[in-house]
Amino acid sequence: MIAIIDYDAGNIKSVEKALLFLGQKVAVTRDPEEILGADGVILPGVGAFGDAMEKLKMYGLVPVIRRCVREDKPFLGICLGLQLLFESSEESPGVEGLGVLKGKVLRIPEKQDLKIPHIGWNDLKFPRPGRLFQGVPEGSYVYFVHSYYLQAAEESVVTATTDYGVRVHASVERGRLFACQFHPEKSSDVGLRILKNFITIAGEG
To answer: Which amino acids are annotated catalytic?
Structure first.
């Protein structure tokens, strides 16, 4: 069973729908025991960094997420869920993120020919092999919706990048902790393959 953490964020339904399409048993929950008992955990999210951290604290989910990471439970952050795993975001100055990975989230710089938020399909480059991308060719296109981008402090965790006026750290991996800035649940067959790879990792026990 995969637990999707419910903290009133956007895009939870589309993640659930994609997992069900892949034949995966899913629970949308904020119950700590259910989350800790799951084979894998997904932290989705669309919205503001500060509001999301407030909700995670309000529902008592911060220690649960940190424990999942500490115990190396298969864990996937998506979009805002990736950003929350890091230390801070320019979107919400003074608000601390979960800090389970080192790095910060910065606003995409204004450039004449670039629209912000970045909405649409961009190709991925793989600076190092990532288990989420097994069977996914380099140069595959995935779907992004964001105004802020990750700058991870440790290049060694970065498994995918894209360019949008700046080099975006599009996916990270450390142990069985994974995160994507893009939306695999909205990225057609490539996205389904990425989610399937995560399900496989979660099923390995």
So the answer is: 79, 183, 185
